[in-house]
Amino acid sequence: MVNNEINEKQRKHLKLLPGVDHILEKAKTNSLFNDIPKPVVIKSVRSVIAKRRESILGNNKIFSDSDLTDASILFDVEKLVQEDMQSNLKRVINATGVVVHTNLGRSLLAKAALENMAKIAGGYSNLEFDLLNGRRGSRYSLVEDILCEISGAESAMVVNNNAGAVFLSLDTVAPQKEVIVSRGELVEIGGSFRIPDVMEKSGAILKEVGTTNRTHLKDYKNALSENTGLLLKVHTSNYSVVGFTAAVSLEQMVELGNKHRLPVMEDLGSGTFVDFSKYNMTKEPTIQESVASGADIITFSGDKLLGGPQAGIIIGNKIIIDRIKQNPLARALRIDKLTLAALEITLRLYREPEKAVKAIPTLRMLTIPLSDIKNRAEKLAKLLSDIEEPDFNKSGLSVNVANMSSRAGGGALPLLDLPSKAVRISIAGMSVNSIEKAMRRNDPPIIGRIEEDLFVLDLRTIHNEELAFIVSAIKQIIKN
Ligand SMILES: *Cc1c(COP(=O)(O)O)cnc(C)c1O
Predict the structure, then answer these.
(1) Measuring from atom 1 of ligand 1, which residue has the nearest CA?
(2) For ligand 1, what atom is nearest to the CA of residue 191?
(3) Cα separation of 471 and 399, whole Å?
(4) Which residue owns the Cα nearest ligand 1 atom 7?
């Protein structure tokens, strides 16, 4: 950028601006940069100096000589280097109260699953090696027995995620065939998973029946033709059709399918092995119930209500599952060994459902007693009030504990309000949006909600060990 009209001050500043090599020399003698890879230091130095040059040429009014000292430049280089050295994927504190928060990574793994994952990741394993016979084995077999044991299904197979499970099943069972689905079940899940679009990509032909609010067995019957390949039920996980409604049960669909020798599939989405009605929550269809109703294929996610790693699980009729395993596309959707290591252990926990509810974080957070959340909220409120004395008297920090509703999230139990407790924060002279931003940019980032002009931290999804991070973030905000 050549500018003929640079003024005296700009000319002087350009002269004062140190060169990249000069700053690199200075950095060499600074212990802060000892363990930083050289390319990172060079990149940061170049970037800071380029920014300074831009400011000079842009005639930035607040720019002064002091911005051109080695110390000033090195200070900015260090900040940039620190940012660059952090992993892009960071651990965050989920203060939203949404338990299966898709944007924040859905489910946290149980401790035993984490341990097994680390063990398998750090060594060789029998991923595709049959230790009993010394032959090549199948990775799918590693979780098949346990899936069949806890679900009652005949056969099982796992892929990368549930979208993949649905796609692979349709591609195997109904290519160029009509798949009958109720208009009330043509769901879109966040992140552009839409049943009609997945169907089209798989080569299956969507045959919609019924209306948005009411679909009857006769609608399915009337739609049957030579070219029907599958009857599909989709669990409307992230919304609910209420009011004047009618839907055909899975049992009825299975009966119709049997009569016409047609397979029946159910996409459960957020499949669960636990009956949530036992914990004062809305009844969700369990995986076992779907199996018992006789569906040929059932698909669900590993990381929604199941509380395991991202995975797509397919269970059901052995003949059909064998065909799915043989589908060449299965290779493109295949599950990796770290997922298998975590999934196997998570599934084993379901052998004792009462223990699973305590050991699997997603289930623990969904079923945690309100009194526990209340205690945690009061503890956080106390810790925050304590920082006001004696130094922060004038901080303007105001804290209270309030009733709150948390959500299950992950497109599950959409109408369920989980009674919860939250700590609500305001700081005099600071907008709630600024508080939200400062918390989000904290290390570790703290993701909360804004309600009624207050910054809200729902304690359902915050762990005890995370309270101290919240307190120090607020301290930092007050100080600045
Ligand atoms: C979530 C969901 C999917 C997609 O599952 P992923 O594990 O996110 O790929 C498919 N169908 C239904 C009904 C769902 O709820």
Answers:
(1) 269
(2) 8
(3) 12
(4) 162
pLDDT (tens digit, 9 = 90+) per residue, 290-318? 999 999 999 999 999 999 999 999 999 99
Nearest CA to ligand 1 atom 13: 269
Structure confidence by residue, pLDDT tens digits, 24-40: 999 999 999 999 999 99
Pocket of ligand 1 (CB under 6 A): 161-163, 166, 187, 189, 193, 234-235, 237, 267, 269-270, 301, 312, 411
Q: What is the distance of C-alpha 129 from the center of its chain?
A: 32
Could you tell me the distance, in angstroms and rounded to a whole number, from the CA of residue 175 to the centre of ligand 1?
Answer: 21
Distance from the CA of 270 to the center of ligand 1, in angstroms?
A: 7
Residue 119 structure tokens: 């063990």
SS3 159: strand
User: What residues contact 203, with CB distance under 8 A and at least 6 apart?
Assistant: 170, 171, 175, 176
User: Side-chain half-sphere of 316: how many Cα atoms within 13 Å?
Assistant: 29
Q: What is the pLDDT of residue 393?
A: 59
At 239 the three-state DSSP class reads coil
Quote the pLDDT of residue 120: 98
At residue 390, the pLDDT reads 58
With the most atoms of ligand 1 within 8 angstroms of its CB, the residue from 103, 201, 235, 237 to mutate is: 237
**Sign of the Cα pseudo-torsion (63, 69, 73, 75, in order):** negative
Domains in the chain and their CATH numbers? 2-85 (no CATH), 93-100+368-479 (3.90.1150.180), 109-359 (3.40.640.10)
Q: How far is the CA of 461 from the centre of ligand 1 (A)?
A: 22
What is the reported pLDDT for 283?
84
pTM over 0.85: yes
Band the pLDDT of 409: cuts 50, 70, 90: confident
Query: Residue 13 and residue 343: Cα distance in Å, rounded?
Result: 60
What separation in Å is there between the alpha carbon of 374 and the centre of ligand 1? 33
The predicted-structure confidence for 231-244, as pLDDT tens digits, reads as follows 999 988 777 778 88
SS3 232: strand
Element spanning 449, H or E = strand 449-451
Q: How far apart, in whole angstroms, are the C-alpha atoms of residue 308 and residue 362?
A: 9
